[in-house]
Amino acid sequence: MLRFEYMPSDFHPLFLFLGESADLAALAMLLRRFAEDPQTIAVAERIPGAVSRDALVLAPADDEFGMRDLGGRFAWKLTDWQAERIAERIELLTPQDNKSGSEIVEIGSVGEIPVKLSRGEFTDDFLITRR
Hints:
By secondary structure, the chain is of the alpha/beta class. It is about 25% helix and about 35% strand. It has 3 helices and 8 strands.
């Protein structure tokens, strides 16, 4: 299961993806597809089992990029080269022979929102759902 979370903060906002190899591979494929043909994509609709507290949409960057709140629906605005670069970094975590339980890689700042990836297992209560 792929989990994604935007964690806003004035000090260090963070965008976090958590999942097993297959989940991260699916995300990398989605980002590559986005890089080839930038269009609005709802992540949870394209990756079965993806969960988050807030809906996440990949959207082409216009004059701004990074995370934007569209009224409880977060749009992650990326350029094609940013999506390609992030997909490459995700693929480094996906090989089946990579036996470590969990890795976190800081990809860098995308519109001043650091993106982190973690490969491994996480409990269902990691992301608290709103009632």
